[in-house]
Amino acid sequence: MTDSLDGSPAGPLIPQLPDDLSIRCIARVPRSSHSALALVSRSWRSLLRSPLFFALRSDLGALQPFLCLNVRTPTDQSCWYLLDPADRWNPILLPAPQLPTVGSACAALGSTLFVLGGSLHGVPSAAVQLFDACRRRWSLGPRMSAAREFAAAGALGGRIYVIGGCLPPADAWAEALDPACAAWSTVPSPPHLREKWMHGSAVLAGRLLAVADRGGVVYDPAAEVPWRPVPAALDLGWRGRAAVVGGILYSYDYLGKIRGYDLETDEWKQVEGLERELPKFLCGATLANLGGLLCVVWEGKRRGRSGSKEMEIEWAGIEVLKTDDGGLQGSIVWSESIILAVPKRSSVAHCVAVEL
């Protein structure tokens, strides 16, 4: 056991309780309270930072969803924030990544955010940047075998997959990262499906879907024929960012509507019930699955506090249910405005959910 804050030998984590039981009690405390718990003693602070403690919280089902939000300024500065649904109006500014890439792809596994490739000083990069949301630290991961910009990415079966992007060679158009061994491996792909620019990607029913400039692709690692074009209805209706919640892929279309695609019926349906609660047009709308809620983030139109020129972000958590006739009915669980200390002409680049 580590020493207490005053230098004396540490006693039990919680008096009158064995430490193994105390740890299980502490593991159930919401993540938003951990900064206060860290002040109790060095023993508590050390425990809260332990990977084993995170694993225990995962086993107990105590992990909570947070949103990593990436904002790009007019001067191409990359700013990352952590948003807590339990403390929705207080964004946490994160340290800047080591490499200021533009046009990166993003994916998450547990509490780790993967930022893949992107342009660095105008040149596509093969760099991989990892953000540990528990420790709030950036590090460099194993480089991809090819430089990529505007690629598709997603987490499947504990691995990170990346597809396409600008400049990858034909034999490395798709590849996968196994975090356990920190190594990339090439994923064979047929030439006729290879495209350059990706407008969006998502993981649906154990498959990685990517929309490109001339038709989308589906990758299913469990299928005998892993690659195929996306269904025509999906390809026609998906032209941007998307999120999968409850087996439905949601996208925000150019008409200002949130729609859901059902793979089983191969059709899009508008999410009803949001017309009066959301603005008619959500500028720069980005979507994420936040603990089973459809989280929508968009750029506000009002100035910041006291007439400043800071950027306003609005975000909402939406519960979507299937109706008896197969439709989609949405209701706002919460909605909040946030002021970010970045220039007003900044834009939302990514929002990715992590677990803490």
UniProtKB/TrEMBL annotation:
Gene3D superfamilies xrefs: Kelch-type beta propeller
Regions that span the bilayer: none
SMART domains: FBOX
Protein's recorded name: F-box/kelch-repeat protein SKIP6-like
InterPro entries: F-box-like_dom_sf, F-box_dom, Kelch-typ_b-propeller, Kelch_FKB95
Pfam families: F-box, Kelch_FKB95
Keywords annotated in UniProt: Kelch repeat, Repeat
Domain F-box, residue spans: 17-57
Keyword Repeat in record: yes
Highest taxon of source: Eukaryota
